[in-house]
Amino acid sequence: MKVPASARRPEGDVGALSPDLRGGAARASAPQPFDSTATAHDVALGELHRLLAVWAQHEPGARAGRDPEELHQLRVTVRRIDAILGLFKHQLPQPLVRARKSAKTVLRTLGSARDLDVLLAGLDDYCATLTDEERSAAQPLRSRLTSERERLRSRMVRGLDSQATRHWLSTLAAASSEPGGTPEPALAVMPDRVQQRFRRLRKSVRHLGAKSTLEDYHEVRRRAKQLRYATECGLSLFGKPAEELLKALRRLQERLGEQQDAHMARNRLTALAAEADGTLPAPTLFFMGRLAERHARATAQARRTLDRAWRKVRGKRWKALRVRLAQLRDEAPTATSNAVLSVSLVPVTPAAAAPEPAAASGPELYPIKH
After folding, report:
1. Which of 126, 134, 149, 236 has a CB 3.0–4.6 Å from the CB of 34, allowing a cystine?
2. Quick one: which of 79, 90, 105, 91 has its CA closest to 46?
3. What is the model's pLDDT at position 272?
């Protein structure tokens, strides 16, 4: 199938990412064992390098627009890049720290089109349970939303083609290939980052009450994502306690996501009904009212299940991971000393021939989840 012109990469962009990043991988593999002597800087750059490969893998599909999952994965990738830039902001060079502002702009570029994908998918799921007559009433709404999605997708592609986005990608690619950085061991830095993000999540949950707004719940979801991404970044270091916590975090995130999607859909339907001005038939407006009420019930249900999901996060799962984090902090000085000792014991032989460079290989990719 021929790819539409709007879905292709812009001319002259072949140098934005290195060849191994553009190549991608047909099948992703599991993350490699954690190097206990690695610095936090090295861990951050390694993760950025991997995420840039994931971007290169999904950007063509997001541009083409044939599979909504491609845009979803591209958006999640940018969220993770933003999380890494925030997680290691004290260990990364300034060009990367400044690039975080651009990451948020790219997220907004992708977000509007993605919201319409979610709304249309929810509409299709609901219509699958209806009679032919009810589905007929929904068709004008679907046509209106599809037209709006195409408009927003065109704007998204222009945003991807923009000089600002291509410069952002080039900055990430160049900086993530540079050695150096601060010498703090990841073994000491990462446990503190995870603990800090848990405290922030706990604080935002405690602020919830009977009069909390959807923005308050959105803040909890944002904090949950930050904790999840930080934990996943050190998964091979944290081990099984982290795996158990991540399961509970995903459930919490799903509940909050359902609530947010339903709220967004209800607001969109309300706005469309107000703007219709006779352009939508009465059966369609009646259908939209029923659908909006359904979304309101979904929002209320998600709020009721949040407390149970949070208890699973903060209970024995977090306590087990907290013990593991304390162990890693105790091991950090030993690991650092061993790394320094191993370097000092390497014999210096100036006359020896330089070893052949290892063959270049692309970054290992593995599936990422929302």
Report:
1. 236
2. 91
3. 85
